[in-house]
Amino acid sequence: MARIGIIGSEGRMGQALARAIEQAGHQCVGGVDRGEDVAKLADGSDALVDFSAPAALKDNLHAAIGAGIPILIGTTGLETTHHEAIDNTARAIPVLQTGNTSLGVNMLAALVRQAASKLGPDWDIEIVEMHHRMKVDAPSGTALLLGEAAAEGRGIDLAANSERGRDGHTGERVEGAIGFAALRGGTVAGDHSVILAGEQERITLSHSAEDRMIFARGAVKGAEWLIGKEAGRYLMFDVLGV
Ligand SMILES: NC(=O)C1=CN([C@@H]2O[C@H](COP(=O)(O)OP(=O)(O)OC[C@H]3O[C@@H](n4cnc5c(N)ncnc54)[C@H](OP(=O)(O)O)[C@@H]3O)[C@@H](O)[C@H]2O)C=CC1
Ligand SMILES: O=C(O)C1=N[C@H](C(=O)O)C[C@H](O)C1
């Protein structure tokens, strides 16, 4: 049985995670939200799981280092400076950061990587996602994870080849680009499609999240897996073996 502390405990994911921790036979030792002391939570935990906001990240990493425990970061909307902080932290403790903790999405990413590696740049790649009306970041962390998988398969750098938020006179599509489109509405837990559009044919690889418990269960698996690991930066691919 592991003692797991939740960052963002009153949020949609925090509440789902508390249920998943109990269902897996672990102990939810408590949680923090905005303005609360994460260092104290870390001291009583075997692992921290963070589903909060990018602004909280540096304090959360600091608390995990202070307590010498692993941390799983599910928060999305991270920028370059956040990733640099994660890389630095991963020299001291095990850190798993992912845009999506579900088995299905990580399997989808593996399929996208394979498809992109076999099909040439004449197959245009577009990533479409839809989420509930409360989501604050776009593209979703999952869309970026899928974009990274496609870019890796194709052997290109995602940042240098992304096309986001087309509007107005955009000009023709750039060959080899990876496009992103984000839809928001209702209560959608998370839908993602990767479209590979070739000459007169099209492949669509999709995942639909029916309930955010899928993310919560994946996060518990990730936290279990991280406990006792060497310092380093890990992915859900390492946990799920896909
Ligand atoms: N990786 C994955 O598989 C998944 C990732 N996510 C991501 O997880 C994050 C949370 O999503 P969701 O639960 O829907 O969002 P919510 O807005 O429902 O919950 C976020 C929680 O974090 C709290 N919070 C905000 N700022 C801080 C802070 N500085 N320190 C501590 N807590 C803070 C909020 O408190 P307050 O209300 O006071 O601001 C709130 O309780 C998002 O980034 C989302 O994209 C979501 C699902 C799956
Ligand atoms: O905010 C959400 O709800 C979700 N966020 C993650 C993302 O940004 O991809 C994962 C999931 O799609 C739900």
From TrEMBL:
Catalytic residue list: 131, 135
Gene Ontology terms describing biological process: diaminopimelate biosynthetic process; lysine biosynthetic process via diaminopimelate
Free-text function comment from the UniProt entry: Catalyzes the conversion of 4-hydroxy-tetrahydrodipicolinate (HTPA) to tetrahydrodipicolinate.
Reaction(s) the record says it catalyses: (S)-2,3,4,5-tetrahydrodipicolinate + NADP(+) + H2O = (2S,4S)-4-hydroxy-2,3,4,5-tetrahydrodipicolinate + NADPH + H(+); (S)-2,3,4,5-tetrahydrodipicolinate + NAD(+) + H2O = (2S,4S)-4-hydroxy-2,3,4,5-tetrahydrodipicolinate + NADH + H(+)
Listed InterPro entries: DapB_C, DapB_N, DapB_N_CS, DHDPR_bac, NAD(P)-bd_dom_sf
Positions of the Dihydrodipicolinate reductase C-terminal domain: 104-240
Protein name: 4-hydroxy-tetrahydrodipicolinate reductase
Any one GO MF annotation of this record: NAD binding
Keyword Transferase carried by entry: no
Similarity annotation: Belongs to the DapB family.
E.C. number(s) listed in UniProt: 1.17.1.8
NCBIfam families named among the record's database cross-references: dapB
Domain of life, per lineage: Bacteria
Keyword Transmembrane helix: no
Keywords noted in UniProt: Amino-acid biosynthesis, Cytoplasm, Diaminopimelate biosynthesis, Lysine biosynthesis, NAD, NADP, Oxidoreductase
PROSITE patterns membership: DAPB
Annotated GO CC locations: cytosol
PANTHER family for the chain: 4-HYDROXY-TETRAHYDRODIPICOLINATE REDUCTASE 1, CHLOROPLASTIC-RELATED, DIHYDRODIPICOLINATE REDUCTASE
Binding site for (S)-2,3,4,5-tetrahydrodipicolinate: 132, 141-142
Location in or out of the cell: Cytoplasm
Residue numbers binding NAD(+): 8-13, 74-76, 98-101
Annotated NADP(+) binding sites: 40
Assembly information from the UniProt record: Homotetramer.
Pathway: Amino-acid biosynthesis; L-lysine biosynthesis via DAP pathway; (S)-tetrahydrodipicolinate from L-aspartate: step 4/4
Domain Dihydrodipicolinate reductase N-terminal: 3-100
A Pfam family reported for this protein in Swiss-Prot or TrEMBL: DapB_N
